[in-house]
Write a structure and sequence with these properties.
With about 240 residues, the chain is α/β, with parallel strands linked by helices. Helices cover about 30% and strands about 20% of the residues. The protein has a domain of about 160 residues: TIM Barrel, CATH 3.20.20. It has an eight-stranded parallel β-barrel with strand order 1-2-4-5-6-7-8-9, surrounded by six helices. The two termini are about 30 Å apart. The relative contact order is 0.13.
Length: about 240
């Protein structure tokens, strides 16, 4: 098991320490600079461009935060870097630019997004970039296949499984689905887990933490109640909207 004490040493700012009211937009250099200044870790997202570059952005389409409107995977990295965010001078970064910007000053937790099932380009590109990064970085995904792929192509890169239970409307089916999710996790052999704080406590994260010894991150912590649950049931939190 990898030593991931660094990953749980400090709270992780969700998409950076963003503050829309003050013009600090999520997943931008300003948000990452604010997190570094406050001595938090950084959680961020990656999407794939049409030419196979790993871009730091959450949504698979532009429009919510930017002046442009299009699918990210339909635009090249150069085109995406020219897109203007609303109310800020920040531009979209590549993963390589993010690594150069952070330069080991904060822990990086990177979530792989994938709008197209079975697309392995993003994991491959992230692994390539991070192989040359001297700072502390880990990668996670909600898709077990992404983590299985990372384990194969970059076995030394810390990898984690993110789990959401939003679709679990049938409460009676929860134990069965927890076991299915755990089976996927074992196949991927994650080294940490991230679990929705709104669904803590729960069977799956309890097993991951107590039986398999995986560090557990609670996401996304936004309130005092969330913070209390994260402190009780997890090893660290991914937070936004306040400063812990």
């Amino acid at each position: 098991m990898a030593d991931l004490d660094w990953l749980i040493a400090r709270p992780l700012a969700h998409r950076g320490l963003h503050d829309d009211q003050n013009g600090i937009i999520e997943n931008t250099p300003s948000a990452f600079a604010a997190a570094i200044a406050a001595r938090y870790g950084i959680e961020c997202d990656l999407q794939i461009s049409s030419d196979g570059e790993a871009m730091v952005y959450h949504d698979d389409t532009l429009g919510r935060l930017t002046e442009a409107s299009a699918r990210l995977d339909a635009m090249t990295a150069a085109e995406l870097k020219r897109v203007t965010f609303r109310a800020t001078q920040d531009r979209m970064m590549t993963l390589g630019e993010l690594c150069d910007f952070v330069a080991g000053r904060a822990a990086l937790l990177i979530e792989l997004k994938s709008p197209r099932a079975g697309d392995r380009r993003l994991a491959a590109r992230a692994a390539t970039v991070l192989s040359g990064y001297a700072g502390q970085a880990a990668v996670m995904s909600f898709e077990p296949a992404q983590i299985v792929n990372l384990r194969r192509i970059a076995p030394r890169l810390p990898r984690g499984m993110a789990v959401r239970m939003h679709a679990w409307r049938d409460v009676s089916a929860a134990p069965r689905r927890a076991m299915a999710a755990l089976a996927h996790g074992l196949t991927a052999r994650p080294q940490f887990a991230a679990y929705s704080v709104s669904h803590l406590p729960a069977l799956l994260p309890t097993l991951a933490r107590s039986v398999f010894g995986l560090p557990l991150l609670a996401w996304t912590v936004r309130s005092a109640d969330d913070r209390e649950k994260a402190a009780r049931y997890a090893d660290q939190m991914i937070f936004e909207g306040f400063r812990p």
